[in-house]
Amino acid sequence: MGMKLTKIPPKGMEMASTCSIDRVLLVLEFILNNLFRNSYVHYYVGDAIKDMKFLKTFLTCARKWSLVHLYLQSDNVVKRVSLPSFLSCIEDTFHKYEDIHSLSHDEMARVFCKIEKEIISLKQEIIQIYFALATLASNRSFQSNSCMTDNELLEFIDLILQNLADLTNDDMNWKITNKWSIYAALSAQVQDLEAKLTFLKSFIPFAKMRGTADFPALLLAHFELVALTAARLSYMCSFWDDHEEIENPEFFYRSTCSFKLLSIRAVDFHVYEIYKEVLAASNSSASLHRAVMDERILNNFNDSLIGRLWELLCCSSSFVDSMKDQMRILYAGLRFLRSILREHHEMMDEQNEKIGALLGEAGIIIFAPTLSRVIEGEVSFSRSIQVLRFRGMLANTNIHIKHFKDQISGSRTIESLLNSSHSLRAPEVSQTSSRMLSKGKMPIDHEVMVGLDDEAEKVIEPLIKHFEDQLSVSSTIQSLPNSSHSLRAPEVSQTSSRMLSKGKMRDHEVMVGLDDEAEKVIERLIWGSEQVEIVPIVGMAGLGKTTLAKKVYNDTSVKCHFHIRLWCTVSQEFNKKSLLTQILCSDGKHSRMDDDLNEDDLLEKLRQRLLKNRYLVVFDDVWDIKVWNELRISFPDDKNQSRIIFTSRSSNVASQVQYGGEPHYLHPLSEKQSFELLQKKVFGEEEECPQALHGLGMEIAEKCWGLPLALVVVAGVLATIEHDILVWKKFAESFTSTMVSGTDQWKKSLELSYEHLSYHLKACLLYFAAFREDEKIGAEKLMRLWIAEGFVEIIEGKRSEDTAEEYLMDLIGRNLVMVSKSRSIGGVKTCYIHDLIFEFCKGKAKEKKFLQVLRGYDELSTFNEPPNLPRLSICSSGEDFIKSRLFCPHLGTLLFFEVTSVYDKFKLRDISFLFCIYKHLNVLNLEGINLRLKWLPAEVESLLRLRYLALRALEMQFIPPSIAKLSHLETFSLNSHQMVSLPDSIWNMKKLRHVHVTHLVIGLSSNDNGVENLSTLPNLDTLSCLRLYKEGENLLRRIPNVRRLKISDEQTGNGVLNMSRLDCLESLTWWGNYSSGSWEHVEPPFPMNLKKLCLYGLGLPCSKMSLIERLPNLEVLKLRVQSMEGQKWELMEGGFPKLRVLTLDCVKVAEWMEADPDSGDYFPCLQQLKLHDISNLKMMPACLESISTLEEIKVSSCRDGVKSLVRKIEAEQKDYGNENLKIIIID
């Protein structure tokens, strides 16, 4: 079908000289933005846009040379080309594609194929023209003659940078995976070109700003040559995804060689002196007083210098090593200048002039051709005149930056003193009300409800200072910033500002009477109408709506009353499909839904699950009635007392819902009470708020949501600023929740808890600050990190993991850490800390110099490493991490968390720099970045202290033998979608304790002759997921003390794998591929100490189930797809003596019974029974009707006969007095 174009400009509109190409690009981009993402045409359009951009770059360049006649050579034939004619031909060729937006999708696809053929037909000639132009430019560069002006060159460079960015998109990369090593080399060269062009793009405006009115022709000609070379190489590489080129090895060889031979220096020897003169020039008066533009230009040039200096610091050469200390000082100095440039102040023009001079000095050093040769590996100096000269220049520049830094620090100190001497103090505080607040008591009838304490006053001081700074920027309301963050106090307590910004306050204050509130809600859930009813819990943010709902949701009586309980968090912006998926998965049965299911499928799936069941569904944080209107069709009313809970900040939502009952309100202070409190704290008990400020005061009070402590802190600020309507109006407009710090009382309480911890527990608690807020942290991962960090005391004869688990349980027992999910065999699976504790830990970790947390590019880019920084946690995009050019060589721990989706498009293609810089690391966790690597770089061997290494590289397949040099490595984790091969050198890593690779093969050395000569990993504790072949049992002998093991057994035809020798094994997941005949004459293959066993595809005959039933310590058994063969499973008397959890999933057993029905010696400890897709089951053990320990039976995707058997067990259990047995049946 056709597409109606409404936003394409008319053909007559004035456009650039590349008119046809520009217009076609505009049409293509419009089509792209109006297509469904999964449309097959979408991919054609994307490729066409990329190709047209490369063509546009060529035309932009070639038109500057249009008066030149070129001689092109091909196959030893030289031909003369008229450039104007060639360019006109291109325009005419693509002019006919300007109206493709009106075509159908199929017609578009055919046109895109034609466009691709047209572009390929031009390929060779354009490459030859680029080469000829570069040759001409090379000759002209020595004659001080360029074809482009500086502005035209900047436009050309911008286009090339766009092309280079397109070269690294994912679609193209996938097309050359079979040439991975060549791609990696070319990709590195592309990044080098990007850096050089970015430098030129920043240098030209910087030079003009510094007083270079007429840009030196020789320098401009050289820059033009660099840009032409880059354009030619980028155009060549744009055909990486061309099938013919992929299959032609000569192309890759030629491309690689072209980069090496033609990639010239941004500043070469013959222009270096001119370059120095430009940078040494002083500002002309005409260039001053352009603060905003100057700041941007200075920032860009400084970023280029930092990037280049960072490359130098990563180099290993005698020349660089001899000056590395001075280079680090310069690096820190440039990052300091970067932070200064981010600030806005009165002396900005004067400071920018000084910064410009300092950057000019640094640029002369950093882009010296000699240093470029060092980076390129062409030259190495040890003791020479160059070393002495550069060392002197470095030292002088560092002295000048230090002098400037001292001036800045001095002026700030004076300014701070002046401000503090004029600051108004908050009035004295009622000690009575302060004590009441600290105890969480809010006397409703008291005229002044709460008061300021000393800690609250400390919070107010920086708020006052910051607000005064805001007032000094402009005296008019019109100049106020529009940003909601324009009034921010950097020094304000991070804990309280974060908590109030989320609408949360201290639990022991706002949760008073929660038990009574819960009883009222539970009564409404369990009793009352048979009809489905919605129970809305309504109140302002921070009053405990979610906490109350969770308390009710998890109440024992509620659990027993409802067959199904589901939970979802809605929030302000919701996606219907995501919300449905969240609801369906909230029972823990499914971790995800099939992506192919659309919204209607999910609505029906939810309705079927709830149908004929008494259900409780919680909608947490509902902002709009729209969510209920869109989902209510899935909530049947079977007149069985089903209930729905809404938590909402809006009473309107509660009043509009169908089936809605009377809202259960949690009350904050009323507006009147809020304003009264604000008024008393600002003006005192005797004075009233002036009428002129009354409306603004009400507005400010309303923004505090009736939260008393927020009102007190805000009142403390208002009490110290001028009582003028313009000042108050500015405050009211700029005031946001992030200004307010309201958790100082909590800080005191947490400080007391913290000080009562042992040294080891303090470190373990503070380590939570390294993770993301609200993150559910895997307990095992956390404890391994603690061990790698050295927090866990080493006790002879005791596993460090056991000690670490005791630490975790201690922190949980102190209510500092909370359990999110428990493991089936006991212990904690995931845990987290409350937001308040998180903020406390983050602040304390920074105060103690225990850990630095950086969030986002602003913090990353201006951070300077303090001496001996032990740990750094980064939460940002991978791209920002690379751009920031962090250099912290003494760092002990680097943890990276991706702030965006884990499937973010940015892929890090080279991590060698990490291994070159951070050689002192004990812990390296890069699971937050998707590394685009097939091989782990051999440079990893330089991390000799490393104890913990975690990576996410979905395409990685090979680990180098040099990894064995990491003799201290204890944990190695790799998330890859490929089969990963570990080298046989792994057997030399005697300290290795935990290996987690999604699909793993380990090499066996050919030197191991006989069992007695086998190299072992005596300390290996966990290993997953290992694929075993014919040498499987020999490999298992090498890990004699493993406790947790996941294996995929591929040794078909070699008999059943025997693991009985693994005496320490407690948890085993075993994927097999056996037939029932494989188990004939088999000795027990399972170790006796197993506590958890999960089986897939083993084909174990029911007659051999006694091999498992005899296991004396087994607590959890999961028999999954094809793990059992046979129709009749007869339980052995006295079997499963400790089994607590039994799961039968897709097994074919029909008759499941006891050997002796009269015996009671079956399942003495069973608590949970889970049945999934057991289609043939017709008989279940009678003992299940009388087991006193049974707590829950969950049935899913089973036939009615199985459900009837379960209902019979339920009835018999009730007769035996077990009223608490929970039966969950899911269709």
TrEMBL record:
Q: Which residues form the Disease resistance R13L4/SHOC-2-like LRR domain?
A: 918-1192
Q: Where is this region: Disordered?
A: 482-504
Enumerate the spans annotated as NB-ARC domain: 516-686
Q: Name one GO biological process term.
A: defense response to virus
Polar residues composition bias: which ranges?
482-499
What the entry lists under InterPro entries is as follows: Apaf_helical, Disease_R_plants, LRR_dom_sf, LRR_R13L4/SHOC2-like, NB-ARC, P-loop_NTPase, R1A-like_N, WH-like_DNA-bd_sf
Disease resistance protein winged helix domain location: 771-840
Among the entry's GO cellular component annotations, what is one?
A: cytoplasm
Key word Ion transport present in the record?
Answer: no
Describe the family membership recorded for this protein in Swiss-Prot or TrEMBL.
Answer: Belongs to the disease resistance NB-LRR family.
What's the protein here called? Late blight resistance protein homolog R1A-3 isoform X1
